[in-house]
Amino acid sequence: MTLPDLDPLWLTLRLAGLVTLILLIVGTPLAWWLATTRWRIKSVAEAITALPLVLPPTVLGFYFLVFLSPNSTLGGLWFSATGTTLTFSFVGLVFCSVIYSLPFTVQPLQATFETLGRGFWETAATLRASPLDAFLTVISPLAARGYLTAIVLTFAHTIGEFGVVLMVGGNIPGQTKVISIAIYEHVETIRYAEAHLLSAGLLAFSFLVLLFVYVMNRRFPIHVG
Amino acid sequence: MSVDGMSELSFDLSIAFGDFSLAVAERLPLQGITALFGPSGCGKSTLLRILAGLERRAVGHIMLAGETWQDGEISIPTYRRGIGYVFQDARLFPHLDVASNLRYAEKRSQGMSSAIHFDQVVVALDLGDLLRRSAPSLSGGERQRVAIGRTLLTRPRLLLMDEPLASLDFKRKGEILPYIERLPDAFGVPIIYVTHDIEEVARLADRMIVLQNGRVVVTGDVESVLARLDLPGGNEQFEAGAALTAHVLRHDPHYRLSQLDLHGQTIMVPQIDAAIGSSLRLRIRARDVAIATERPSAISVRNILSVHILEIMATLDSPHADILLDIGGSTLRARITRQSVDELQLAPGHAVFAVVKSVSFNAPGFGARQLP
Question: Is-above-0.90 flag for pTM?
Answer without folding.
Answer: no
